[in-house]
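TL;DR need structure tokens for one chain.
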Amino acid sequence: MLNKEQIKEIIPQREPFLMIDEVEDYIPGESAIAYKYINESEYYFKGHFPSNPIMPGVLITESLAQTGAVAILSMEENKGKNALFGGIDKMKFKRQVVPGDKLKLEVKIIKRKGPIGVGEALATVDGKVAAKGELTFALV
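>> reply
TL;DR here they are.
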């Protein structure tokens, strides 16, 4: 299990844009499982939406991307690099993510060629799919 400080040793994101709270497991270059604990004090709930707080889909996607970045950037040869979005494909949002939810984030790296790769991404709450799709990354 990695806590936030240990996560920061692998990926460059910082508060308020660090979108994962802990990493349950990871295999460098292959996969990662992380969690985001959704609470009412998240900065984006002030405007999305004040009377009906819902985590924006783009931030669920970013949380998945950061989870995938843990898998890729934990490889010895990628230390100190950054993983940028190269594309988002087949992303579907199946349920709302709201305060009190524990968002489970799973990413498996399914393709790699040079500095480009693709991760199969799945976000769930209580075993129910919140979002899924493929994320393309570029290492820089």
